[in-house]
Specification:
By secondary structure, this protein is mainly alpha-helical. It has one domain (about 1-230): Rhomboid-like (Rhomboid-like fold). It is built from 12 helices and 3 strands. The chain has helices at about 15-35, 40-45, 50-55, 55-60, 65, 70, 80-100, 105-125, 135-150, 170-190, 205-220, 225-230; strands at about 1-5, 155-160, 165-170. Strand 2 (about 155-160) and strand 3 form a beta hairpin.
Length: about 230
């Protein structure tokens, strides 16, 4: 299912969301300009689990070199479709979450979700030497927050039915719940295999980001009842 738009208007300008999108686009154009140096750049600033779990590799990096990829990986992308898909999803869901949290807390929330995604990916792919890049882990956190904050919002989505696509309005809790279950089962199957990314997708980073986003939302909104809990308790 491909989201087209949601039914929830934003109550304030999503400044941070626009800044994140702009930074990701600028970073991608910088990648395109690197030419033959791109592979080295991705290995340096992408998240490579083996750099942290294999001592003989970790010895070659200073502590700052090891810290930076936890932040830089979430602003890099592997291609036009990767970039466009992530930025479009962030555009749809991020403005409403930023409206609820405010600009500063949303910025902390976004980076925190990306860190949660990175840590879970690292824990579930300890021996992988494949660099992971992309904003999808952090965006999964945004989706997790949206799932809790706006469960009854309507998502207009392009849905595949056999060999055709049709437009359907789907409740947010159904759309995002289905997305999360897809990540969970795909991630579980990947662990039953060789514990590496399956099809180039870091499933557990998505899972970690989604769950981390829900936890961070509760931490950053102390004393305020969450809509999902208020409606169904």
């Amino acid at each position: 299912m491909i989201p087209i738009r949601d039914s929830t208007p934003s109550l304030r300008a999503p400044i941070v969301n626009y800044v994140v999108i702009a930074l990701c686009i600028l970073a991608f154009f910088f990648e395109l300009a690197l030419g033959r140096q791109l592979e080295r750049f991705i290995l340096t600033y992408g998240l490579v689990p083996a750099r942290y779990t294999r001592w003989e590799i970790a010895l070659h990096f200073a502590w700052l070199d090891q810290l930076i990829p936890f932040f830089s990986y979430m602003f890099l992308h592997g291609g036009w479709l990767h970039l466009i898909g992530n930025m479009w999803t962030l555009y749809i869901f991020g403005d409403n979450v930023e409206s609820e949290l405010g600009h500063v807390r949303y910025a902390l929330f976004y980076v925190g979700s990306g860190l949660a995604a990175a840590l879970i990916h690292l824990a579930t792919n300890v021996s992988s030497s494949v660099p992971t890049i992309g904003a999808s882990g952090a965006i999964a956190g945004v989706m997790g927050a949206y799932f809790v904050l706006f469960p009854r919002a309507r998502i207009l989505a392009l849905v595949p039915i056999v060999f055709f696509f049709t437009l359907m309005e789907i409740p947010a809790y159904v759309f995002l719940g289905f997305w999360f279950l897809l990540q969970f089962f795909s991630g579980t199957f990947s662990l039953l295999g060789d514990s590496r990314q399956v099809g180039g997708v870091a499933w557990w980073a998505h899972i970690g980001g989604f769950v981390g986003g829900i936890v961070l939302l509760r931490m950053l909104r102390p004393g305020r009842p969450l809509p999902l809990l208020r409606r169904y308790n």
